[in-house]
Amino acid sequence: MTAAPATCKKNRLAIRNHLKINDMETLSVIHNSNRNRFEIHDGNAIAYVEYYIHDGALDIIHTIVPIPLEGRGVGSALVKAAYQWADTQRLNHAATCSFADAWLRRHPQS
């Protein structure tokens, strides 16, 4: 199964955030620090944001959400988790990825 980008087409340490999909389903956000990614696993589908740390900032470079996970707030949950972690590390927020950039503009307090 190939992943479709969630708007962004550019180029296991367990920090757990939970995304409540509905009354029956909650997905966990996992920080995969070995791959510089925050991930959500749902069956065979893996959604993720990939980041680099440079110049004192966490820069999200890709947001990938496979089709089975689209439309459920997964991309936003991943971006939010990544920037929350960046805050704990005293890193600024940066976004090469257009999806993450749009998220930052919608959430200026983040």
Written overview of the protein:
The chain has 110 residues and is α+β, with helices and mostly antiparallel strands. The chain has a single domain (13-106), classed as Gcn5-related N-acetyltransferase (GNAT) (Aminopeptidase). 22% of the residues lie in helices and 42% in strands. A hairpin with a 2-residue loop joins strand 1 (13-22) and strand 2 (25-32). It is globular, with a radius of gyration of 13 Å. 33% of the residues are buried. The model is unreliable at 1-16 (pLDDT under 50).
Task: Provide the descriptors you would attach to this structure in a database record.
2 helices, 110 residues, Aminopeptidase, globular, alpha+beta, 42% strand, single chain
In short:
By secondary structure, the protein is of the alpha+beta class.
Q: Assign the CATH class.
A: Alpha Beta
Question: pLDDT under 50 segments (min length 5)?
Answer: 1-16
What series of H and E elements makes up the topology? EEEEEHEH
Task: Provide the number of structural domains.
Answer: 1
Q: Alpha-carbon distance between the termini?
A: 33 Å
Q: Could you estimate the helical fraction of the residues in percent?
A: 10-25%
Strand composition percent: 35-45%
**What would you give as the CATH superfamily?**
Gcn5-related N-acetyltransferase (GNAT)
What structural class do you assign from the helix and strand content? alpha+beta
The overall strand count is: 6
User: How many DSSP H or I helices?
Assistant: 2
Q: Kindly state the mean pLDDT as a whole number?
A: 82
Gyration radius, to the nearest Å?
13 Å
For the record, the CATH architecture stands as 3-Layer(aba) Sandwich
* Biggest sheet, spatial arrangement of strands: 1-2-3-4-5-6
Largest sheet: 6 strands, mixed
CA-based shape: globular
And the CATH topology?
A: Aminopeptidase
